[in-house]
Design a protein that fits this description.
With 348 residues, the chain is an alpha/beta fold. The protein has nine helices and twelve strands.
Length: 348
């Protein structure tokens, strides 16, 4: 998806059966909490908010000490060059937000957009993806997920993670913007990049199947990824071997989530970033147990979200609140621009 670039201060391996057997149920008064952040920092001001120990968002996360922080990707704005130094510095910053309890999933700015014409130093996006995997997943100097009990990763596709907190089972999927990495392949071998997109689709589909199998006895499921698959051209067909670019790169995974959620019958929350709107709603009337959070960030609303799951609340089991403003997420997805005043109390 296209990112906004502004020049002023902006606003906020074990088996699935083993995992399933270990899911426990909370007492009635207990809620499950976690924090979500993404699509930032895009500016020096935003970076300062995230910098440990004095940044306002960094302080708020530390004070809350959540059992998991999910970073939805896009740790840089699209026009910044994807240098090793930038990768390492943003990895360091993310690692210190919630030490050893952070799950990161890549966004398109982090690798797929590294070949853009408006970047001073352009890169082969597939080479950058390999570098990103090395720094964040294979080397993982600061051990991002060390203290998240039971977290497992998908064999052969290390970005995808699966874990549980109380009665909730979580999964991340590597789903970037730009039509799931099928658009604007400018420096990589196009066939290799599209082969990678096909492999990503297949891996994500298998991981979703494993997630729902693992969560059979859970009370809720949370699925986190980067791309806004809801704000897309739904008239296009699903991508296939015959049509790999003029297609909806999200249709397959979107339809699978709907089908599996209906079968699961219990609450499912999908969390993504990628677009301006910040909102919590139910995207499909025919899937009443599915909620969607378009997380804060992406220039419009710079904050992190605290999310609570309350199994006793059948009408609204997921509650989303800003860490800085302490306001609930709006129900209406508004793509218009914003009021800069929201950040002023935190910049003094």
């Amino acid at each position: 998806m296209m990112k906004w670039t502004l020049f002023f201060v902006p606003l906020i391996f074990l088996s699935s059966s083993a995992l399933a057997s270990d899911v426990t149920h909370p007492t009635a008064e207990k809620s499950t909490q976690f924090v979500v952040i993404g699509d930032m920092p895009y500016t020096d001001t935003e970076s300062a908010l995230l910098e440990h120990p004095d940044g306002a968002i960094a302080k708020a996360i530390k004070a809350l000490n959540p059992p998991a922080l999910i970073h939805l990707g896009d740790f840089k704005r699209g026009r910044l060059s994807c240098t090793d130094e930038l990768y390492k510095d943003n990895y360091r910053q993310i690692a210190h937000l919630n030490p050893h309890k952070t799950v990161y999933t890549p966004g398109d700015n982090d690798w797929a957009d590294c070949d853009r014409f408006n970047i001073s130093a352009r890169y082969d996006e597939l080479e950058r993806l390999n570098t990103l995997r090395q720094i964040f997943f294979y080397q993982d100097q600061f051990e991002l997920t060390k203290n998240i009990p039971g977290l497992i990763r998908q064999e052969g596709f290390i970005e995808n993670a699966l874990w549980k907190i109380d009665p909730v089972v979580f999964a991340t999927l590597h789903i970037p913007g730009n039509n799931n990495g099928r658009h604007e392949i400018l420096r990589s071998n196009i066939e290799e990049a599209l082969d990678g997109a096909d492999h990503r689709d297949q891996s994500n589909g298998k991981w979703l199947q494993q997630l729902f199998a693992a969560a059979e006895s859970a009370q809720a499921i949370v699925i986190a990824f980067h791309a806004d698959m809801f704000d897309f051209d739904h008239d296009k067909p699903a991508c296939s071997a015959e049509n790999r670019t003029e297609c909806d790169g999200y249709r397959m995974i979107r339809e699978l989530i709907k089908i599996k959620a209906l079968q699961f019958k219990k609450p499912v929350l999908v969390i993504h970033g990628d677009t301006l709107a910040y909102c919590l709603n139910q995207p499909y009337t025919g899937v009443p147990n599915l909620w969607r959070l378009n997380a804060p960030g992406d220039i419009k609303y710079v904050d992190a979200s605290q999310i609570l799951f309350n199994p006793e609340n059948k009408t609204m089991p997921f509650t989303v609140t800003g860490l800085l403003d302490r306001k609930p997420a709006p129900a209406v997805c508004n793509d218009s621009f914003f009021d800069l005043s929201i950040l002023l109390p935190f910049l003094k």
